[in-house]
């Protein structure tokens, strides 16, 4: 009788809870599907740049849907409103849902204040890819760059996102870096909202924040910057792999 009651309770499919279900898919199945995606688009274009753009467009649609799903499932329909918050969300939550782990590193650029980089030693979409010599500059990471752009754009952080190979000393294969360059208006707004502190005081402030939030009844916990250390003119790890 209890089981029947539960069935009647959710007769309308829209009333049923959003089940997490099984969160893993077969790696071989994904590799086959992604290979077909690349091969099909390769027949529709004349150059590598156009092929990467098509992969980015495919990833963009995935990113938009991932953001909607995770905001509903993990954050109670709340979305990040700070630049560092959305970067941390992508580096940890989004990456773990897509690839089963957090990204290897999240770094801030040295030459431009509006540039950030997410790096992977072996990005899944490049792990089993053998690129012909005549396509030496092709990077399947464009698909993941599209996912990141889809998340950022739909979260209200417009940015140009590109994928690049970066050689690593002592390793045969290069790592993949997703370069994020935020739109000027997006970065300017975040800079005005950000906490202004001298670099020497940033770490101490971040260490005190957890205690301040516990003692303050009005403290907001949706944006937690603990662990972010910004040092000007350096490529500074903002978050590291666990």
UniProtKB/TrEMBL annotation:
<keyword id="KW-0813">Transport</keyword>
<keyword id="KW-0333">Golgi apparatus</keyword>
<protein>
    <submittedName>
        <fullName>Trafficking protein particle complex subunit</fullName>
    </submittedName>
</protein>
<keyword id="KW-0256">Endoplasmic reticulum</keyword>
<comment type="similarity">
    <text>Belongs to the TRAPP small subunits family. BET3 subfamily.</text>
</comment>
<keyword id="KW-0931">ER-Golgi transport</keyword>
<dbReference type="GO" id="GO:0005783">
    <property type="term" value="C:endoplasmic reticulum"/>
</dbReference>
<dbReference type="Pfam" id="PF04051">
    <property type="entry name" value="TRAPP"/>
</dbReference>
<dbReference type="InterPro" id="IPR016696">
    <property type="entry name" value="TRAPP-I_su5"/>
</dbReference>
<dbReference type="InterPro" id="IPR007194">
    <property type="entry name" value="TRAPP_component"/>
</dbReference>
<dbReference type="GO" id="GO:1990070">
    <property type="term" value="C:TRAPPI protein complex"/>
</dbReference>
<dbReference type="GO" id="GO:1990071">
    <property type="term" value="C:TRAPPII protein complex"/>
</dbReference>
<dbReference type="GO" id="GO:1990072">
    <property type="term" value="C:TRAPPIII protein complex"/>
</dbReference>
<dbReference type="GO" id="GO:0006888">
    <property type="term" value="P:endoplasmic reticulum to Golgi vesicle-mediated transport"/>
</dbReference>
<dbReference type="InterPro" id="IPR024096">
    <property type="entry name" value="NO_sig/Golgi_transp_ligand-bd"/>
</dbReference>
